[in-house]
Amino acid sequence: MLQKWPLDPSKQGRDLGKHLRVKVSEAFKMGDATRIADPAKCDADLAALNRIADNYYGKKFHRGRTTGAMGYNADKCSAIVSTHMLIAINEKQPGWFSRLRSRMKALDTPPPPKIK
């Protein structure tokens, strides 16, 4: 199953393939000798992950379009959520709308109580 989940270097710290590898290594520390507390749940989880990896539901419920709600294809969406892009967005100076919103929030704060 892990072979179906390649590591994605564009998602450092958020890569599903790496997360799965860590979880599997934690769950099966002793390899094949590991005793599984709930084998039925383990089998169900494995089957669910295999369905996702094999794109079972994508094939079963075929979509006519290959774009998302914003009109971007899969490559564009992958680039948008890459670690590189998220860092670039976080480093960017706030735009005029963000500055306006923070100023409006400052106006919403109640004034300090008057001392008699």
Question: What does this entry look like structurally?
Answer:
The structure is a single chain. Helices cover 53% and strands 0% of the residues. It is built from 6 helices and no strands. It has helices at residues 16-27, 39-53, 56-60, 74-80, 83-91, 96-108. The longest helix is centred in the middle third of the chain and has 15 residues, at 39-53.
At a glance:
The chain is mainly α. Helix content is 53%, strand content 0%.
Features:
116 residues; 6 helices; mainly alpha
CA-based gyration radius:
23 Å
Rounded mean pLDDT is: 82
The helical percent reads 40-55%
Number of helical segments?
6
Enumerate the spans where pLDDT stays under 50 for 5 or more consecutive residues.
none
Output the structural class.
Answer: mainly alpha
List the helices and strands and how they pair.
Blueprint: H1 16-27, H2 39-53, H3 56-60, H4 74-80, H5 83-91, H6 96-108
